[in-house]
Amino acid sequence: FQLQASGGGPVRTGGSLTLSCTASGVADEYYAIAWFRQAPGKEREGVSCLSISDGKTLYEDSFKGRFTISRDHAKNTVTLQMNSLKPEDSGVYYCNARRLAVDYWGQGTLVTVSS
Questions:
Q1: Which of 46, 63, 75, 83 is the most buried (most CB within 10 A)?
Q2: Separation of alpha carbons 56 and 51, rounded Å
């Protein structure tokens, strides 16, 4: 099971970015994909998750209304659309897959929001 995260980069306050997490090496849909963020000097925190099997989504409160998680079935990719970005949204964003109680991590993609 491998995850490839992409889409990070520099953006101005109020701007948008779309992160992508592509899964490979899995033949079924019994897993969930989550995005986590780690800001400089802080612990990694959850952002949002999506169940591949039924499409249900969850968001941490601070991201509701600004971030949207969705799936591209054909590309086996989960995207995180981030709008109205703030400097405090800066950090490394990691995608995670949980399958059969095992966690898999992508390599992270850096988002830098400047004012």
A1: 63
A2: 5
Q: Residue 80's CB: how many other CB atoms inside 10 A?
A: 26
Backbone angles phi, psi at 8, to 5 degrees: -70, 170
Cα–Cα distance for residue pair 110/47, rounded to 1 Å: 15
Burial class (CB in 10 A: 0-12, 13-18, 19+), 106: buried
E strand or H helix at 24:
strand 17-24
Q: 31 by DSSP, 3-state: which? A: coil
